[in-house]
Design goal:
310 residues, alpha/beta, Udp-n-acetylmuramoylalanyl-d-glutamate--2,6- Diaminopimelate Ligase, Chain: A, domain 1, UDP N-Acetylglucosamine Acyltransferase, domain 1, 2 domains, 5 helices, UDP-3-O-[(3R)-3-hydroxyacyl]-glucosamine N-acyltransferase activity, transferase
Length: 310
């Protein structure tokens, strides 16, 4: 998320009421999660396990809960609760906006686009040309839809990220200020849910086709010409490269990359990166021919055991 203008380190520290280390005029241009930070961004870290990663990231302002040596060319915001203060910044720069009409007056709708009854189009949404938005679709604030996109009934674009911090009193939600971006020639089936990014974009690439009842988590990027079948669940911060096929009921954990040309057979449980142009099956998943050989071997075990016991 980039701010509407450049802020100083002192200004940001005042917004969250915390100390800072560095030049008070150090430039601050935005805030992002660690996987999408660029110079000028704030990133937060609240666990020693991730201090080194945050301090060494592309972010130049680190919101941290301990006074540490400040890397050259960077600045620190010292907070007793970085998670809370990151939320303060999101609330300040991306506050919730009420939508007073089914189609917000700030939405931009391209020529030839049809929006069926009971669809809700949020604030600052941009929809391209020749799209078809079916009944009861909900497109949240700031979403970007390309040309020739079809979205079927009941689908939600731009729900909040499923991202919580466990505290003694319960779960504390990390606020979402990002977007969903749908490229040209995408079709999305009914009753799908595509969460907005926390600070960045959740993206569906050009020409990809999604079946019904699919969940895609925050900040995930789906490449071009991908095919995703029903009941697939993809966690946040996943990268699915181009021309990937994902069959029904596949589950993909966060922070993995599905390489170009991968095929995931039905009910795969994907826990790590895949190799290009390879087909996988099973839970835990593996290359399909290897898994089938393992399964065939397991089926022979009762006969082997019976012969041993003779």
């Amino acid at each position: 998320m980039k701010f509407p203008r450049q802020y100083s380190l002192k200004e940001i520290a005042s917004l969250v009421d915390c100390k800072f280390v560095g030049d008070q005029d150090f430039p601050v241009q935005g805030m992002n999660e660690i996987h999408v930070v660029t110079p000028g961004d704030i990133v937060f870290v609240d666990h020693p396990k991730y201090y080194e990663k945050a301090l060494g990231s592309a972010a130049t302002i680190i919101l941290i809960n301990k006074e540490v040596a400040c890397p050259d060319g960077k600045a620190l915001l010292i907070s007793d609760d970085p998670f809370r203060d990151f939320n303060k910044l999101t609330r300040h720069f991306k506050p919730f906006q009420v939508t007073l009409k089914s189609i917000s007056e700030s939405a931009e709708i391209g020529e030839g686009t049809v929006i069926q009854p009971n669809a809700v189009i949020g604030n600052n949404v941009k929809i391209g040309k020749n799209c078809l938005i079916h009944a009861n679709v909900n497109i949240g604030d700031d979403c970007i839809i390309g040309d020739n996109v079809i979205i079927h009934a009941g689908t939600v674009l731009g729900a909040d990220a499923f991202y919580y911090k466990k505290r003694e009193e319960g779960f504390d939600k990390l606020l979402s200020g990002g977007r969903v971006v749908i490229k040209d020639n995408v079709e999305i089936g009914s009753n799908c849910s595509i969460d907005r990014g926390v600070t960045g974009d959740t993206t569906i690439g050009k020409g990809s086709k999604l079946d019904n009842l699919i969940q895609i988590g925050h900040d995930t990027v789906i490449g071009e010409k991908c095919l995703i079948a029903s009941q697939v669940g993809i966690a946040g911060c996943v990268v699915v490269e181009n021309e990937v096929t994902i069959w029904g009921q596949v589950g993909i954990r966060s922070d993995v990359t599905i390489a170009t040309g991968t095929v995931l057979m039905a009910q795969c449980g994907v826990s790590k990166d895949t190799s290009p142009n390879t087909t996988y099956w099973g839970t835990p998943f593996g290359e399909v021919r290897t898994k089938l050989k393992e399964y065939a071997a397991v089926k022979q075990l009762p006969g082997i055991i019976k012969n041993i016991n003779k």
